[in-house]
Amino acid sequence: MDRSFSLIADLDAVPSPCFVVDEAALARNLSVLARVKRETGCRILLALKAFAMHSVFPLIKDTLDGTCASSLFEARLGSQYFGGEVHTFSAAYSDLEFHDILEYSSTVIFNSFAQWQRFSPVVQKSGKPIACGLRVNPEHSEAPAALYDPCGPGARLGIRRPDFEGRSIDGITGLHFHTLCEQNADALERTLTAFEKRFGNYLKDMSWVNFGGGHHITRNDYDVDLLCRLIGRIRDTYGVTVYLEPGEAVALNAGVLVATVLDVVKNDMDIAILDASAATHMPDVLEMPYRPGIAGAGFPGEKPHTYRIAGPSCLAGDVIGEYSFDAPLIAGSKVILLDMAHYTMVKTNMFNGINLPAIGRLDAHGRFHLVREFGYQDYVSRLS
Q1: What is the per-residue pLDDT across 185-195, written as a single tens digit (0 to 9) for each?
Q2: Which residue from 104, 168, 230, 342 could staple onto 75, CB 3.0 to 4.6 Å apart?
């Protein structure tokens, strides 16, 4: 992803902080997803929860078949800006929003039989050709952290196999599961074994199955051949259309966050404070947690100058990580945080009244285009 750093002719022309999405990198990711579609006949949806930069949807929608949404606003965004299919799933729907969700969705997936029974009459009365599905819990954990494991004890997502007993599935045309998080196809293979064991007999009566997201399909070491074989086997065994809904894989390594050092303070070590915050601009750094890459930086002690990189908020733990650099950092130094397209813009917040990063893109020729800047009105309009 150094391309986004090295090909910006004038880095000073990029506002700071700023998310910069590389259209060429998006195109490379889409070429991998296009191969999977071509070789398997599956349908692929963009998971808006990971990447919802609608200004680049024209580059994506020629390859993908639509979007998957987790809320009314995501469904509306997908319908109005992307088009194609809109598959909506929520842990629970409200009476207040469900009619509007039907307006924007082509498929609605339910998290319980109670929700299906409650809202299926509403679907029927709508007169729209909306497909209905159930999310199931294969009770097989693959996610690397409990925070991202929907199959662990006490999990709230998906219907377990015993809960199907004595239940009618008339009107249900598909099953959905989602168990993965940034994982390879071997994790999907193990999940499918558990899924088929518990739900294979129901799948024979379905027309589609959704393998969910978390597939790191565009990662360099991802086993695309195995993924294609797994899709083909399920397709042929059960006569169903297979859906995937990657979000991260669409935008993987396709964006950076350009930031600037505001100050360097000392407290047992050198601490560089940026105008970019882990707490407000990249919450996954704290939630997962993980250490994002920085262009040209190494691990602590690997290069001559080591710093703790931190944000400007009042949260004591607003720390991005520790890195080393070839040259000292001073106020005004640029820092380029890598792989910042997914699960960043969709999760930013304005805690402390800290402004959101601007949003820009690099076109296929490496030219920077400013898409959006934010300001005080964006902050105050959220409050009362």
Answers
A1: 999 999 999 99
A2: 104
